[in-house]
Design brief:
The chain is 37% helix and 14% strand. It is built from nine helices and eleven strands.
């Protein structure tokens, strides 16, 4: 099982020297990957709407002060040498398909094949209204079509697309990504459409457990989600074993209430021993990667927690 951590690219920790230090410390500690989130603009944050917390508020301070995801991924690639770079997740409709495919291929080449393209369709309509040229209501269809265009551009010598949202022909696209056939695509999201997208187009399913509308915060709930994914994958004509399992953890330990609304213990709540048991249980289910958000108000505290988690949890897996 690979273990990653979220790199804070928003708020007070988003200063270049701090972001670089946390990325390099994580690499030195032996973490397998770091993650970068994706918002371009945010609306009035006095109106709660974040789907992954109980209050609807963002977990960290100053989320509106943030760097663009792909620019930052390229920057961090140049500041590190081994650690993998996971987009967690890239909102696919934010960027035109051919431009996004080019940027992603460039990051993969320049990082020597360290990119993982985590993707989602997006959830924040106010951001779409300001940034995106395709309709918010069509974001799922747009995402699926863009993903197919990415694959064509990354793998075909003479790529073509003739869809509702993407059209190209007679173009050359080079260089192709280093990774073959292309960087892994981890499909984020917890809803039925997200599961179907993972089943049809993904290399792995990449949910967050705390989505209030689609909770995967207990072992039985997550197991039920996996069963749905496997069913959708088989219906799509793919081998269910070809869609991997990955999982994102936004809060853990004492920050997580012990009991979920289904009466079961919430994943990653409780003591260090409980968290170790959860990681072992996910590994037994076939989960190949889990990432944790270690962000604290100060960089020293964040790094200290990354080190503690490595020593007290990961060393005992």
């Amino acid at each position: 099982m690979q273990i990653g951590f979220n790199l804070p690219i928003s708020g007070p920790l988003a200063e270049p020297e701090i972001v670089t230090r946390i990325a390099q410390e994580g690499e030195a500690l032996g973490y397998d990957y770091l993650t970068l989130t994706d918002h371009i603009v945010l609306p009035n944050l006095q109106v709660p709407g974040y789907p992954y917390s109980e209050t609807g508020e963002f977990f960290s301070e100053g989320p509106e002060h943030r760097h663009e995801q792909l620019t930052t991924a390229a920057y961090i690639a140049a500041k590190t040498s081994r650690i993998r770079l996971v987009l967690a997740v890239m909102v696919v409709p934010h960027r035109p398909a051919v431009l996004a495919a080019k940027m992603l291929a460039s990051i993969d080449v320049l990082s020597c094949g360290r990119l993982v393209v985590g993707i989602g369709a997006g959830w924040l309509q106010a951001e779409f209204d300001a940034v995106v040229t395709t309709p918010f209501a069509a974001r799922g269809a747009v995402t699926d079509e863009y993903l197919k265009a990415f694959r064509a551009l990354w793998t075909e010598e003479i790529p073509r697309a003739d869809g509702s949202w993407v059209k190209f022909d007679g173009i050359e696209f080079a260089p192709k990504p280093v990774q073959k056939p292309h960087p892994l695509i981890w499909v984020g999201g917890e809803s039925g459409p997200a599961l179907r997208r993972a089943a049809q187009l993904g290399d792995a399913w990449y949910p967050i457990g705390s989505n209030n509308k689609h909770l995967l915060d207990t072992l039985p709930r997550y197991q039920a989600g996996i069963a749905r994914l496997r069913r959708f994958t088989a219906e799509a004509g793919r081998d269910p074993a070809n869609v991997g399992l990955t999982y994102r953890v936004k809060r853990y330990g004492e920050a997580v209430p012990g009991k979920a609304s289904d009466g079961e213990r919430r994943l990653f709540s409780g003591s260090t021993s409980d968290i170790i048991a959860d990681l072992r249980a996910l590994r037994a289910l076939g989960v190949s990667a889990v990432d944790i958000d270690f962000e604290r108000p100060e960089p020293e505290a964040s790094i200290a927690e990354m080190r503690r988690f490595k020593e007290e949890v990961l060393s005992r897996l």
